[in-house]
Structures are given as C-alpha cells and as structure tokens.
Design goal:
The structure is a homotetramer. By secondary structure, chain A is of the alpha+beta class. Chain A has a single domain, classed as Orthogonal Bundle (Arc Repressor Mutant, subunit A). Chain A has 6 helices and 3 strands. Chain A has a two-stranded antiparallel ribbon. In chain A, helix 3 packs across helix 5. Chain A starts with a helix and ends with a helix. Chains in contact: A-B, A-C, A-D, B-C, B-D, C-D. The interface between A and B is large, with 36 and 36 residues. Strand 1 of chain C pairs antiparallel with strand 1 of chain D, so a sheet runs across the interface.
Chain lengths: ~130, ~130, ~130, ~130
C-alpha cells in the first residue's frame, strides 16, 4: 500500500453532470434506475468506452445484466439515447451511444415550461 | 421565448461527480435510489443549499417525501452522510450535510481491495 | 501524515469549466492571464466565497494584488463580469460576482459565427 | 439560427478541474500561461484528442504555435507532463499526453506542506 494508489484514484477525475438534468430527469419521465443507467453510459463514454455493453453497465450497478438490457432498450425506443456510427481510420465502423436525444427532450421540456409560465403571467395581467 | 432562457439554463453549471464513486457505490452497499439521494444532496450543496429537506429532495425525484426521509435516515445511521454545524456571523448555528463519511468509506474499500489484490499476487508468486 | 489528508484533498472536488469557454475565451478577446482571473473567481464562488478580494485571487496566482485589481477592473468595465447584490436574512446586503455577462458574450459570439457560416454556405450555393 | 445550435453547444459539456490544482499551480512553479497550456491539453484529452499538436493548442489560445511548442517542451522536461504509448488494435502505436506527473508533483507538494505544518505545531507545543 503506498501513495501511488491515491494518485491513481485521484487521477480518474470526475464526470460533469448538468444540474438541469439532475433537477429535471423526473419531468422527462425517467425514474432513478433509468437515470442511473444514463449516468453510467455517460461515465463509460467519458472514460473512453463509447458503447458499453449491458454487462459492463451492470458491473457498476446493483441491477442485473437482463435489467440493464431492458432499460437500455427502453431508453433507445423512447428516444432518450441514440446509437450513432463513427467511421475510424481504414473505414472500420464503430457504434457509439449519443445522449443528444436526451438534451433535445430536456430543452423541449424547459421551453414548454417557460411558455406555460409566460401564459400564466399574461392571463393574470388580463384579469 | 428568447435567448435569455438559454443563457440562464447554461449558467446553472454542472456537478462534478468523481468517477470512482459512480464505479463503486455498489461496492459500498448503496443501491440506485440511495445513491441518487446522495447525488441530490450534493446537487443542493453545490447550489448553495447545504441542508435540503426531504421535501426539497423529493421535488427532484420520483420518490415520495416519506421515502426520502427513510433513505436520509438510513444514510445517516449507516455512516454515509453526517450533519455538521457551522457557526455564521453573530453565532447563528447552521446545520449542513457532509459527505466526508462517504469518501472515508470509499477509500477504506479501495484500500482493502488493493491489499487483497497484492496478497493474491504474492500467493501466485509463491506457488 | 496519514490517509485523512488524502480524503480531505479528494473531498475538495472540482470546478466544471464549460469546454466552449476554454475553446473561445480568445475569441472573446481575453488573454490567458485575464481568463485565469475569471477561473479563479469561479473557483472562489464554487467554494462559497462569492466576492473574493484581489488579495485572495492573487494568493492563488503568480500575479500581484495590483495586477489582479487592474484585471478585475478591466473585466468589469468591458462587461465580462458584473457585481450583483444579494439580500440575506435581516436585510444585510451581500455583494457577489456574476459571470452572466461572460455567458452572454459567449453566446453572442457563437451566434454571430453561426450566422456567418450560414451566409457563406448560401453564397456558395448561389454561385 | 435555431435551437439546434444551443443543444449542440450545451452538449459539449465541461472539463472538471480539481480545485486543488487551481489553488496550487503557483506552488508547483507554473505561471498562468503554462497552466493554461495544461488546461488546454486536458480539454483536448477529454474531447477525445489525446495528443494535440502545438498548432491545435495555439488555435484556442492567444499564444503562437512557437510559444506553445516551447511551453510543451518545458512541461515535458520539468516533469509536469509525460508522453505515453498506447497499443491499439492491430498493434498501431498511439502517443498520448499523461498528466500523471502533475498529480505526483501536486501530492508531493501537499504532503511536504502538511509535514511542515505538523512540525510547526510540535515545535510550538514544545516551547
């Protein structure tokens, strides 16, 4: 046991999670388990593995591989995640997860909320 | 609807979650719901509210206030969170959550893992 | 010397700096010294001190207190930073730095860039 | 101009910079320009380019390519950065920057500071 371990641990770094997402995943109809799968996907992407398998996700979670597969399928079908194709050197195709659909959903929600609030203000002023 | 909203949303910033924690909360015997309560506490602390109520935590989650109260109590009793007292100007006492016990648990786990691995290496070399 | 120190160091956490800002401070006419003052202000804000003095900023930098004062004044005059007033309990007024003007500048720059690129595309298509 | 751009900008994410580093680069004998080169290297690594050229670094900075080359050389010679080799599929060797030497320097500094403080406490108690 020596200081080298501490430096290795420290060096792993952090994943920056937007506060907006932590505050609104519920409003996007995600529950805690589903949101944690999203965070694990983000964690793997930021660690260089852009297409983690259900088994890899499950290894960091209390959920079984089967449950991770189900949640991933749900997130893809309901448009929270997408799979993109990347072309590497020598035209090897690499699949990777994209969280862009999630940001789109988040902004749609925030915009509809804002419009709703503006309407309420206008209605109050008209009364 | 205008660009101001986007700037406000962007300005909210991110919470930096250590990758070590995302990878090891399961090994510290936390499940996804409990870990999400920890992340919400961290989110509130980083947003300037160092002692969020169960109702505030619940407002960002699919969990009820009662469930949040239960999980908070569990996290405090089992030594994942602590309550510290802060003395402000004019000696007003302010309570706040501390995640220090969680980091202590994390490092104890990582150290015991490392020692275990070193033992295995030594045993293999001796055979 | 013991493990407690490591845990304290680890616990300090990270400041999440938007990549857009790291990639564009130059386009907003900030140089490295000025941008580092912005980052130090952000660091102090995120550590709970929302109105750091030039002396406090200087203590983390190779720049003198006088130089930090000059740069702060420049950032305020040119609209990169603003000073906001916060009303605490018992109506004590607390001054704090806001980075909102910087985000506004960043988005204005990014939008003008985008419009410029779209114009170029249209011009090419017309030729 | 539409909302797509905002989502793309938002999606770029953040680089998590440890507060310890923002508070101590000066104590590690780095000035603001040198530290900004380190942050740019980190920014490129986190964006998937693990071996940015001086020209790429310079494109985000007010420093010339020549100046970036000089600073990179200095950081490598004085042991703040290292170049590591990665073996990809089909044994293509890929060079990449490592910030591990910087963390080692940071912890050595923090440890020597702690020991110094403990000595002072002991000396005061002995008097």
């Amino acid at each position: 046991m020596n200081y080298d371990n501490f430096i290795d641990w420290f060096q792993q770094g952090s994943v920056a999670i937007p506060k907006l997402l932590l505050q609104n995943y519920k409003n996007l109809n995600l529950n805690e388990e589903e949101f944690m799968v999203v965070l694990q996907v983000l964690n793997f992407i930021e660690s260089g593995n852009t297409f983690p398998t259900p088994t890899e996700l499950s290894s960091n979670m209390t959920l079984s591989t089967t449950r991770c597969t189900e949640i991933l399928r749900h997130l893809l079908q309901k448009g929270y995640l997408a799979i993109e194709e990347d072309y590497h050197e020598k035209s090897i195709i690499v699949e990777k997860y994209s969280l862009k659909p999630l940001w789109v959903k988040l902004f749609h929600y925030l915009m509809s909320e804002t419009i709703e609030q503006e309407k309420t203000v206008v209605q109050r002023e008209e009364q």
